[in-house]
Amino acid sequence: MNESQDIEPIMLGDSICPLCGSSINIYLHMYKTPLDESIAILTAKCEKCGFKSSSILTIRTSVTHNCIKLKIEKPEDLNTIIYIGENAEIEIPSMNIYVSSSQLNIGSIITADAILLYIIDSLRGLCTSNLTDNRCKELIDMENQISLGKIRDKVEVILKSSEGISILKSYRDGNYEQC
Fold this sequence. Notes:
The radius of gyration is 17 Å and the shape is globular. A hairpin with a 6-residue loop joins β1 (5-16) and β2 (23-32). The protein folds into 2 domains: 5-59, ZPR1, zinc finger domain (N-terminal domain of TfIIb, Single Sheet), CATH 2.20.25; 65-178, Jelly Rolls, CATH 2.60.120. The chain is built from 4 helices and 11 strands. Helix content is 19%, strand content 44%. It has helices at 101-104, 112-122, 124-128, 134-147, and strands at 5-16, 23-32, 38-45, 52-59, 65-72, 81-84, 89-92, 97-100, 109-111, 155-169, 176-178. The protein starts with a strand and ends with a strand. The strands form 2 sheets. Strands 5, 6, 7, 8, 9, 10 and 11 form a 7-stranded antiparallel β-sheet that branches. It has a 4-stranded antiparallel β-sheet with strand order 1-2-3-4, with no helix packed on it. α2 crosses α4. With 179 residues, the protein is α+β, with helices and mostly antiparallel strands.
């Protein structure tokens, strides 16, 4: 009998410890079982107070598309787990934002909120010097909403890649569609 394979943990981002308010890192651990199923474990641990949290997700093999429209309308949409092929194009049409996943230096498995936070972080320098730009105001507001685990303003993110895009785990029906 084969042992399960652990793929190197991926840091998805950081959050705030619910007990002490310190910054905590969130990691995704992927395992391949002997039956060729995939299991993902999301973990978070606070080094300051010892708070620990983990969630186990089974990931079904899903259909890979070249283009997906991800609708972020409710807080649970932020937790959508996505597989992104190399050099994916990421668009937020309502804000006129177009970037490549390679520009953001993100991995191939990522959550919707992490995509948005990487985009916000990559534009931070531009926004710091241009606070009158409405797009920058929207991004700063979005970052504040995400840090609170909320989403007030609906956002559509379009993901395109010839290598494929898949929704690995969604917490709400209808939050994505094929382009």
